[in-house]
Structures are given as C-alpha cells and as structure tokens.
Write a structure and sequence with these properties.
The chain is mostly helical. The protein is built from 15 helices and no strands. The protein is 70% helix and 0% strand. 27% of the residues are buried.
Length: 326
Amino acid sequence: MTAYIVRRILYAIPILVLVNLLTFALFFVVNTPEDMARMQLGAKRVTPEAIEKWKIEHGYDRPLLWNAKAEGLEKATRTIFFEKSVKLFTLSFGASEADKRDIGNEIKTRMWPSLALAIPVFLVGLAVNITFALFLAFFRATYLDYSGVVLCVAMMSVSTLFYIIGGQYLVSKLWHLVPISGYDEGLDAAKFLVLPVVIGIISSFGSGGRFYRTLFVEEMGKDYVRTARAKGLAETTVLFRHVLKNAMIPILTGVVVVIPTLFLGSLIAESFFGIPGLGSYTIDAIQAQDFAVVRAMVFLGSVLYIIGLVLTDISYTLVDPRVRFG
C-alpha cells in the first residue's frame, strides 16, 4: 500500500505541472501583461509610464519563460513563469494583484467559513440522500418509489439559484427568521449559516437521492441478494446488511474524493450569502481580474482533487478486503 501511495503521488507531479502550464498559458493567451495593467489600473487612458510601473511592482517586467540575458540558474528563475507558477509547488502563493494582500494568509483565514458551510451540507446531505434512497429501494416498483423518483427529477431540474433566491426572499425577507446575508465569528455564525446549509442540502437532494437509489436498486437485482432472500432473511436485513455494504465502493468513489475539496467552499452560495470563504474569494478574484489569486486557487483545487483520488483508493481497501494495491 505504501509503495502504491508513493507511486500515485509521483504520478500526480506531471499532472500538476501540466495544469500549471495550461493555466499559465491561458492567462497570457487571453491577456498580455499590458492588458492586465490596464484592467488593474482601471483607467480608460493609462500612460505607458503607469503601465511599466505596475509591471515592475507585480513582477511582469521579466521574460515569460526564459531570460536570455541572465546566466546559469538565473535564466530560469528570473522569469514570470518561475515567479508566478513554479513557486506554487512550494505553496508560495505570493500577493494579490488587486489589493496586495498575502494570498496564503487569505486562504488560511477564509477556509474556516468555507468549512463551516461545506461540512454540514456534505454530512447532513449525504445522510439524507442515502436514507431517502434506501426508503425508495425498500418500496421499489410501488407508487412511493415512482413518486420519489419524480420528485428527484423535478428537484434536479430546478437551478440552485432558484433555491437561493427563493429561500432568501421567503425565509429572510418575508418571515425574517435569519439574516439574508453576512457572516460572524464563533457561534454567532450559526444564524448566517442555517439558510445556506438548508438550501445546499435541498439543492443536492434530487441528484443525490436518484443516484443512490439507482445503486441500491441495481444491487438488489444481483444473485447474492436473491440468495439472501431464499435463506429467509427479512427485507430490511437484506437491505442494510448486504445491499448497503456492497454499494459502499461506488458511494465512496463520489464521496471521499469530494472531502479535500470542501476547503474550497461553494462559489455560488458564498457569493450570494456574503460568506467570506474561498468560494467567494475566487469569484471576487475573477471579477477583479486578479490572476494571482485565480492561479493559486486553480492550483490548490488540483492538489486537493488529487489527494481526494488517493484517499478514495485507500478507502476501497477498508470497505472491501478483497481490494489490494500492489
């Protein structure tokens, strides 16, 4: 297992390098350093002197990939690519181009509001979806099952924005039960998180319930389930002891891989509810054309996703002893 994990980590390095190169290339295909300077300075007519000053302050006055005038190691290190992209591998994110704040400190500060929102949505949503799916599987091919599937499809067809805007209007504006947006520290944050957590659970209910129901119904049609029934086991025993256990591997595939990315928060929910997490941080950076923050968040998201894939493989061995990685 240790050798397998080491190999997976080594395989991840070229993937991260490729993601880094593509992200870097896309930035400079879309915008030159001069374009970035004009967007950040925000004036319609920016003087060449102001543009050059901005480039020097933000490290865009250097060559992109190779410094022909330098010698030795300095050829590679005195470039925009090294300063803006290669240093990400040491988790040195640099400073924001919009407000010059340290990106690393911002990530450390903002990940807690993101986790405060994402973890309850993830855990409660997972429990609700699996419970509802087991209920539908237990009453499969009945009106309860058909009605549940129709409900799931209907909820899948509704945009998340509808749930957010509708929830804010109904719960906050009309009923005045919770604040419409904002955030606070400590236990006072609960009143700001209740509505986005509930909406997050509701918005994932349709797709999650239907997905897990499909898994359970598929398992219930297999030979080992028919054998268990033939032995006289109760339907609930078959469902919870056999079906649920054997469905855990596909469930883990979609669940464990998501866990590391919970740090990144929810882009839409955090923006609409004014939660100062990493999701809203990324959206604000995109709107402000702050490429330093966007680069850092893309890289961090790639790292966390790869970690999730490794954790998924490890979790397989815990659920099914037959799975072995050499």
